[in-house]
């Protein structure tokens, strides 16, 4: 499914209600300006080593609650253990856990809700399943789809598009916005194995400035 061209979004972008286990996504009307920014990949999976313009930054990822309009069912790993792909895996700081959805996930709404509005300095994610199966050694990153482009949308209607390198590490983009909710939209993915048509996100990061 293709995301509507941005000119359509300028007239009416909204957080639609999507019934899925009580999931409700708030409406935003009147999308403002969009900024297309280059990603800032880190050297590892760390969510605590954000480097940006001079200032004081706080990783507030674990303060956020998260919901996704679609999630893949649990599956078995190489050792026969059951693995879940809940959206909360994106905010647990553990790259070997992941949220996953069937297909290219371009029709999925992922919403992060903070306890209160804050000024953000950066957002980012690990654009795939950053795990090597401990029993079989299979690289889950290349086996599943990886995100190559995504859009972050904020409460004031502004948004940032982020392009990702095809590597299993945290990649961030700078922002300067006050918001209490963030909508993440997958815009494009890189296919994995034909037998694993799933899109995964191991970790996200939300950085506040102070």
Automatic annotation (TrEMBL):
Keywords: Membrane, Transmembrane, Transmembrane helix. InterPro entries: Galactose-bd-like_sf (IPR008979), NADase_transloc (IPR057561). Signal peptide: none annotated. The chain crosses the membrane at residues 12-38. NCBIfam families: NADase_discoid (NF047619). This is F5/8 type C domain-containing protein. It comes from Parafrankia soli.
């Amino acid at each position: 499914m293709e995301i509507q061209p941005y000119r359509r979004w300028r007239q009416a972008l909204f957080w639609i209600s999507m019934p899925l286990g009580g999931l409700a996504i708030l409406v935003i009307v009147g999308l403002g300006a969009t900024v297309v920014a280059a990603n800032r990949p880190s050297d590892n999976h760390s969510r605590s080593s954000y480097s940006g313009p001079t200032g004081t930054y706080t990783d507030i990822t674990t303060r956020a609650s998260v919901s996704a309009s679609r999630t893949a069912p649990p599956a078995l790993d190489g050792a026969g253990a059951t693995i879940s792909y809940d959206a909360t895996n994106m905010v647990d700081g553990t790259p070997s856990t992941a949220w996953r959805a069937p297909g290219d996930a371009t029709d999925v709404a992922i919403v992060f809700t903070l306890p209160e509005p804050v000024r953000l300095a950066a957002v980012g994610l690990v654009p795939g399943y950053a795990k090597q199966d401990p029993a079989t050694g299979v690289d889950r990153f290349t086996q599943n789809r990886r995100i190559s482009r995504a859009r972050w949308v904020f409460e004031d209607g502004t948004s940032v598009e982020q392009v990702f390198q095809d590597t299993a590490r945290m990649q961030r983009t700078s922002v300067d916005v006050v918001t209490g909710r963030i909508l993440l939209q997958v815009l494009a993915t890189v296919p994995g194995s034909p037998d694993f048509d799933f899109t995964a996100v191991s970790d996200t990061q939300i950085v506040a400035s102070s």
